[in-house]
Structures are given as structure tokens and as C-alpha cells.
Design goal:
This protein is mainly beta. The chain is built from 1 helix and 11 strands. The chain has one helix at about 1-5, and strands at about 15-20, 25, 30-35, 40-55, 60-70, 70-80, 90-95, 95-110, 115-120, 125, 130-139. Strands 1-11-4-8-7 form a 5-stranded antiparallel β-sheet, with no helix packed on it. A 4-stranded antiparallel β-sheet has the order 3-9-5-6, with no helix packed on it. A hairpin with a 3-residue loop joins strand 7 and strand 8. It is globular and about 45 Å long. The model is unreliable at about 1-10 (pLDDT under 50).
Length: about 140
């Protein structure tokens, strides 16, 4: 019973997903998340989840993530590998949909309702095949 309780999310966990429009994710369109915590300021880890389908034409995705740590804005660039060198999709999924999770930052001090922005920085104007993007903040 203790193991089950330890795996349950705490009241301070925040998770949110945003659907990407069917026509694709435009380069200039940043997704904005506003994590809400039980305490006004918390220390924790920020992770990103991404769900794509088999229409995605690349083996990776480059993302820019802007967040606040200790009242200072941080901008990180993430290269999330979605397929191995043979084209086999990584992550969890079935034959057509796959989900990957990557850590953005560990041990950051984040104020409640401070925005986290995510945008793709691929060399195309509109990115096809990404279905959902989400973030999680947990102590």
C-alpha cells in the first residue's frame, strides 16, 4: 500500500497539455503554460511531453523553452530525438502515435502562474505530425 501511495501524484504536481492544430504547428506560435502550485514559490523539476504521429517527417525536433528560475528568465534549446538511426520511433506508443518525455530543468525555483513558453525551432514554417505538447512541474 505504501508503494502505491508513493507513486500517486502530490497536490503540488502540475501537468497540462495543448493540442496542436490539424494544419500544423507554425514556427511563430509559442505554446504558453502557467503552472499553478499549492505554494506561491516551489522548487521542482520541469519536464516536457510530446506526442507525434507517423506523419512526422524528421527523426528529432528542436524546441525552445522559456521559463523562470529564481526570478530570472531562462531560455533553453532542446533537441528531442524521436527516432533511431534506422527510423524506428522511440518513446511509448502504438503503430501510429508515439509519446516522448524529456527533462527541461531540475531543481528550479518557480513562482506559481509564471509562464512557460514552448515553440519549435525547426527549419520549416509549419511543422506537421506533432499532435500534443505538455509540461509537468513536480517537486
Amino acid at each position: 500500500m505504501a508503494m502505491i501511495a508513493a507513486c500517486a501524484p502530490s497536490d503540488n504536481d502540475y501537468s497540462s497539455w495543448q493540442a496542436i492544430p490539424q494544419e500544423g504547428w507554425r514556427y511563430a506560435e509559442a505554446l504558453t503554460f502557467e503552472p499553478v502550485h499549492a505554494d506561491s514559490i516551489m522548487r521542482g523539476n520541469l519536464t516536457l511531453g510530446l506526442r507525434h504521429d507517423d506523419r512526422y517527417a524528421y527523426s528529432n525536433v528542436w524546441l525552445e523553452v522559456a521559463y523562470t528560475d529564481h526570478d530570472r528568465e531562462q531560455v533553453d534549446t532542446l533537441n528531442i530525438v524521436l527516432a533511431d538511426k534506422y527510423g524506428k520511433w522511440r518513446g511509448i506508443g502504438n503503430a501510429t502515435d508515439f509519446q516522448v518525455v524529456d527533462t527541461i530543468a531540475r531543481g528550479i525555483v518557480h513562482a506559481s502562474r509564471t509562464p512557460v513558453r514552448v515553440r519549435h525551432i525547426m527549419r520549416v514554417d509549419t511543422l506537421q505530425g506533432i499532435d500534443l505538447v505538455g509540461i509537468e512541474f513536480h517537486p
